[in-house]
From TrEMBL:
Any single Gene Ontology cellular-component annotation: membrane
GO molecular function, one term: oxidoreductase activity
Protein name (record): SDR family oxidoreductase
Species of provenance: Alcanivorax profundi
InterPro entries per UniProt: NAD(P)-bd_dom_sf, SDR_fam
Amino acid sequence: MKRFSGKTALITGASSGMGKDYARLLAAAGAHLVLTARREDRLVSLRDTLLAEFSVDVLVLPCDLMDPVSRQAMLDALDGRGVKVDILINNAGLGLQEPFVAMPWGHLQGMMDVDMTALTHLTHHFATRMQARGEGYVLLVASVAGHMAIPGYAGYSACKHYVRALGYALNGELRPAGVRVTVVSPGATETEFFDVAGHQRNLLAKLLTGKSEAVAWSALKGLHRGRREVVPGLINWLATLSARLLPYTLMRRIMEIIF
Ligand SMILES: NC(=O)c1ccc[n+]([C@@H]2O[C@H](COP(=O)([O-])OP(=O)(O)OC[C@H]3O[C@@H](n4cnc5c(N)ncnc54)[C@H](OP(=O)(O)O)[C@@H]3O)[C@@H](O)[C@H]2O)c1
């Protein structure tokens, strides 16, 4: 990942799970970092660990991505400090597992705000600048759920379909301007995701759960090469292939058994 050395990467959702792994791998590749999420104490602790291990700059900027005022304050703070973001890792996100009509509207709206609106806002803000400079990298974190429609995760699946569609289109739009846009679609991965989702996984779902660092590594490798989409892991790749080939009713039954 030579091309990332000396660049500055903004990582959303860096307080936990895959975000922490993106931070560590990018620091190891020599990239300077801006870490953001709501839990500042965790970001500070990650910054201190990375600073002790790698010779890179690490800036912590807490932000609630659900809140447009907080998002704008973070963007203004970056401008105020003259920070030029070369690599945008749109990782923050959440899924809520609940029957669609049982979910309070506020919860659904909050999920859509983080998973779609904030991701689109940051992508628009930084891609505009990257295009003007003729260089940049944007990673959009989608999900295997964005390849299918999962009962119980209806809103989340729909959000991740949006992320994939946006990323695919931007990969084509921005490539001629030197900006690489990659979508990563992880399958079930061991992070805090399922705690936040309120999802008690069965044994099969646990067995199919992969490691966070492996996902982050595949995603960054794909971004470095400018690939349109990365689906880390053979099982996840087979799941996305099945979603294309199998009838929806059969696929839905399989999803119900696993999830
Ligand atoms: N784990 C999986 O099985 C899986 C599978 C497919 C895709 N994904 C996707 O992978 C991405 C990373 O999730 P993860 O698995 O690493 O889960 P995680 O451990 O729960 O991490 C989610 C991150 O998003 C941040 N976040 C959530 N709401 C936020 C808000 N309102 N403002 C700012 N930051 C917010 C959290 O930080 P704070 O709480 O500190 O704000 C946290 O750092 C997500 O986009 C998720 O949809 C996960």
